[in-house]
Amino acid sequence: MKPEPENYKKEPDTEKKILEAAAKVFMLKGKDGASMQDIADEAGINRPLVHYYFRNKDKLFDAIFNNLLGKIMPGIVAIFMQDIPITKKFEFFVEKYTEVLKEMPFLPFFIFQEISLNPDRLVSLIEQGGLDTSVTLPDLSKRLEELGIKYMDPRHLIANLIGMVIFPFVARPIFQRLGFKNDPEAYDRFLEERKREIPRFIKMALEGEKNIE
């Protein structure tokens, strides 16, 4: 192992700069295609300094992923643990998750990478973040029954909800060109409108389910 550079002192700003640069590089080139030199160039620092902070690419990827989950999981868990109507839970979830994705549009990339490479670790990190499906799923079922909806599996509802929030961000390069004349400001407005449209759509779907016996 190489000795630590004598003149290096770890600084929070430098670490943040490396993490932000690495997120961009990983998103553009993928984990396998990215190099520590690419990340150093993006951050505007030398490669030994990147190694000093994170040793290798795997540790850097892990640090980014843990940091991202640490930012979003507490808020999401808090929403689903609140004693509020199910429609309010979904409304708050859409608001929270949309804001997170606007701030960190590369988040789905990291999640998809982790699903492909290390699903067990992803599940473990989510559970460590406080999400207990043995509690949340029965609670959602109960709240659906309170609305008069007896035959809806809440897992379908959650999958639909997450897909409706994430997909417009993942598909932005296509949607923005085909539907918005490649106008980023117009697409940003569209994403903001989704905060209202998704809960409205969910409410309409739930109203329809009430009539199914």
Poorly predicted parts: none
The whole-number mean of residue pLDDT values reads 88
Our measurement of the CA-to-CA distance between the termini, rounded to an integer number of angstroms, reads 67 Å
* Total DSSP helices: 11
Total domains, how many? 2
Gross geometry:
globular
Return Rg in Å: 21 Å
Class based on secondary structure composition and strand pairing: mainly alpha
Overview of this structure, please?
By secondary structure, this protein is an all-alpha fold. The chain folds into two domains: about 1-55, Arc Repressor Mutant, subunit A; about 65-210. It has helices spanning about 10-35, 35-45, 45-55, 55-80, 85-105, 105-115, 120-130, 135-145, 155-170, 170-180, 185-210. Helix 1 packs across helix 4, helix 5 packs parallel to helix 9 (about 155-170) and helix 9 (about 155-170) runs antiparallel to helix 11 (about 185-210). The model has no long low-confidence stretch (mean pLDDT about 90).
